[in-house]
Design a protein that fits this description.
five-stranded parallel β-sheet, two-stranded antiparallel sheet, alpha/beta, globular
């Protein structure tokens, strides 16, 4: 994907507002990292968070290392609640306090997706799960973050079989994505409505099939 084109496509008030609203709806008490496609877009997201009363900082590859270290320390200490970023934090960040990851950038790289999700998977006392807000449907390309990955000997991920990723359902109440094997949303507790199958019966008689 071309990052600048993604930024222009998504950089609207409706999208930005939705990103903030969905965070406040599903993870308002969590410390978060937001991955954005462009610097301009990331700055606008951070500004929108601050306007909504959420203390948030923007960082990118041009930010000096001292400012980045201070921002990470402020996040861990609770002085700020989140950081929006571009092209940083996908690796080399160990901040166990992060328990929400927000995707606002598309990626075709399974490594980028795994590293981004991994920023929120560090263990910390009292932390029982990670909330991932996927606004760009990266899950459709790679499945759920705890799905097993079938690596080939060449180090590339084998293509998923048709329909494999679709073995999930979306909660009609909170839009959480989870496996078909569960009949209750793990996020809000909404139960899946079981539709009774109606077997139709038509008039007729069985006949013998001649296989000769």
């Amino acid at each position: 994907f071309v990052a600048e084109e993604l930024g222009e496509l998504m950089d609207t008030k409706a999208i930005i507002g939705d990103a903030v609203d969905e965070f406040k709806k599903h993870a308002s008490d969590r410390k978060f990292l937001t991955f954005s496609p462009t610097i301009k877009f990331s700055e606008h997201i951070a500004e929108s968070y601050r306007e909504a009363g959420v203390n948030c900082a923007h960082l990118d590859g041009s930010t000096d290392k001292k400012t980045i270290r201070h921002a990470v320390r402020d996040l861990v200490d609770g002085k700020i609640q989140g950081i929006t970023s571009v092209a940083i934090f996908l690796e080399g960040l160990d901040a166990p306090a992060v328990n929400c990851v927000q995707w606002l950038r598309h990626t075709k790289s399974v490594v980028v997706k795994m590293q981004g999700d991994g920023r929120g998977m560090r263990n910390e006392r009292g932390k029982d799960h990670l909330v991932i807000l996927d606004h760009v449907q990266n899950w459709k390309r790679f499945g759920l973050p705890d799905d097993p990955i079938d690596w080939s000997l060449e180090g590339k991920v084998k293509a998923k079989a048709p329909g494999e990723v679709s073995m999930t359902r979306e909660c009609e109440h909170c839009y959480c994505r989870y496996r078909l094997s569960s009949l209750q949303c793990p996020e809000c507790g909404q139960k899946v409505a079981i539709k009774e199958r109606v077997i139709e019966q038509e008039a007729g008689e069985l006949v013998e099939v001649d296989l000769s």
